[in-house]
Amino acid sequence: MLAKVSTLVAASLALCNAFDPVDGRPNVDFDYEIDEDKLKSRSVIMMIPDGTGPNIWALARNMVDPTHKKMLHIDPLFRGSVQTFSNTSLITDSASSATAYATGFKTYDAGIGVDMEKRPLGTILEAAQARGMVVGMIVTSRVTHATPASFAAHIHSRSLENDIADQYCANANLDFLLGGGKRHFSDACLAKLKAAGYTITLDKDELAAYRKTNEANGTLRMFGLYQKSHMSYEVDRIRGETNEPSLSEMTEHIFAILKNNKRAQKHGFFVMIEGSRVDHAGHSNDAGTMGKEAIEFDNTVSVVKQFVYSNPNVAMISAADHGTGGITLGRDGVYKWKPEPLVKQVMSTEGMKALFSNDRATYTEATALQKVKDLIIQNSATKKISKEWDAIFTAEVKKIVANAKYSTSKLVVYMGQCISQTAHIAWTTVGHVGTDVNLYCAGPSVFTRRCNGNHDNTHLNHIMTNYLNLDLQPITLKLRGYKPNGNQTAAPASTPIVSSSTPSTTSTPESTPVITSTTLATTSATPVTTSATPLAIPSSSYPTTSPGVSKPSTTVWAKPTLKPGCINVSVALSASELLGTRQRKGFMKLFRKYCSSKKSPIDCLYGVDVPLVLMNSFNTHEETVRIIRKYRMHNLSIHTFNQGKEYIFISNVDNLGATV
């Protein structure tokens, strides 16, 4: 009898352990052999819910089901958190945060794919494309907006969206790009895309038709531009007034084609998906719209999860770039908040503003005030405007009626705050906040176990590039005009990627400087070598026809003369990981100990990110690795110069043991 009971208990435990109790997915061992098919290529999907701080997931979850019987699709994937600060502020903007994700280096707010000196940094998307992988982005903002631009463009200011569009068209290195922002693509720019073999889809029906035509053969060469500016909020889109696809629909269509793409099957893919407009609703303090944007992002996570679970070598990583709005679920000392009023909201405050503005020229103060009240009451659960809000709206419409040029941006925020108060929700800002954001991961455990814990935002890039075995440094060197043949043409710190255009959305694209395809574009036919072999970087230089981009210096750095047994090692440090004084002294001590030269000169070169430190130092690769690990300086790249030979790159210190 006891034996039977023991057998039943053992069988029950085995059954329980076989499936995840949260989402029912079969558990997998952390064994690499079980977890991943080594014969298949690896791929990564990065998902960014822009502006979605931790509170927004609670907001969305309660809007989906206030009884707490349902979870979000993303909930079981929670792994840790991410620090979001930039190099210039504890509260980042989307450009610097996305640059950290794309390049692995922090930069200043507003910088797109550039370092603190405005020099280009290679991105994971560009490195993946150079490897021959399929690459693309799906967003609900303008495709030229800060987050997508940081993965595929290099420019000193996020406001130069015409120039960013021109870079997309000149490089033609994306397999697909879907979102809004058609106004930034000139006719000449679109003509370049069509000449490069792209199909341009302009609405939901054309996207569906493209899938129908190309799903079987897996052809992906398409730009989707579905609005002049940002795509519509989900709460407005579902009213059917525009023929736009949702984020989940765009993702589903692309993945249906991607699964049959021969190049993706052979080399893998990198896809960035952004739920862009969660952030915009946060700036408007529009809680109902913000929650529904987060829910649609979660619907997209469901599509991605199904794809990941069906493909053993595909990994997904998701984190917001920052929080927005500083939303509080509860206010005024009252221990409650009500999601139901937000669920009943059927129009964004941005949509309400548009309806209000239609008749602006005819308003008196009284009719303007009544219009504001009617829009709120008709499109939300707010049934009565309080005296407090009546006074606020009265003061605002006076300014609007008195001055035809007066902005209605404050009115949008006041509408959002009024509706939020009905749900017992408050806001602390109309800007970004400095909180950590949630980190979610799915896929092979060799990938997901690296996500556990709290990370700097640059580390997410290292997680992805490590998994894909990508090295971004050759891309950066190519962008800066470096040549590998012993003597190299170094691009000094004064070589920024800038534009002669002023930050304007109406500048003429033909007159703005463009980084041409000879500079930034790479093709799968000539992938950049990432293994420990002599590096072959195309010897292209900056285009001389672009006045906003300086030509590299012609200064030639001579090869160092080495003592027998010495190797020169240059350690590229990110701007946030510079050696402290104590560590520098430690390194100098090691130089003198291990190198036959007692002087061990340090020459500063302008290099890959911040100045490279050239050190006559260690005898072997193994010794280099030991020292770097001793000082816990992970996430660095080590470049080794052997006497009389080409230099080689070894990417990511964590993998050096296997590479040496």
TrEMBL record:
UniProt cross-references to SUPFAM superfamilies, sorted A to Z: Alkaline phosphatase-like (SSF53649), Nucleotide-diphospho-sugar transferases (SSF53448)
InterPro entries named among the record's database cross-references: Alkaline_phosphatase (IPR001952), Alkaline_phosphatase_AS (IPR018299), Alkaline_phosphatase_core_sf (IPR017850), Nucleotide-diphossugar_trans (IPR029044), UDPGP_fam (IPR002618)
Stretch list, region Disordered: 486-550
Cofactor(s) required for function per UniProt: Mg(2+); Zn(2+)
Single GO MF annotation: alkaline phosphatase activity
Keywords, ordered alphabetically: Hydrolase, Magnesium, Metal-binding, Nucleotidyltransferase, Phosphoprotein, Signal, Transferase, Zinc
Compositional bias annotation for Low complexity: 489-536
Binding site for Mg(2+): D50, H145, T147, E274
Keyword Transcription regulation found: no
Family matches, as SMART domains: alkPPc (SM00098)
Residue runs in coiled coils: none
Matches recorded under Gene3D superfamilies: 1.10.60.40, Alkaline Phosphatase, subunit A (3.40.720.10), Spore Coat Polysaccharide Biosynthesis Protein SpsA, Chain A (3.90.550.10)
Catalytic site positions: S94 (phosphoserine intermediate)
Protein EC: 3.1.3.1
Species assigned in the record: Aphanomyces astaci
Protein name, as recorded: Alkaline phosphatase
Similarity comment text for this entry: Belongs to the alkaline phosphatase family.
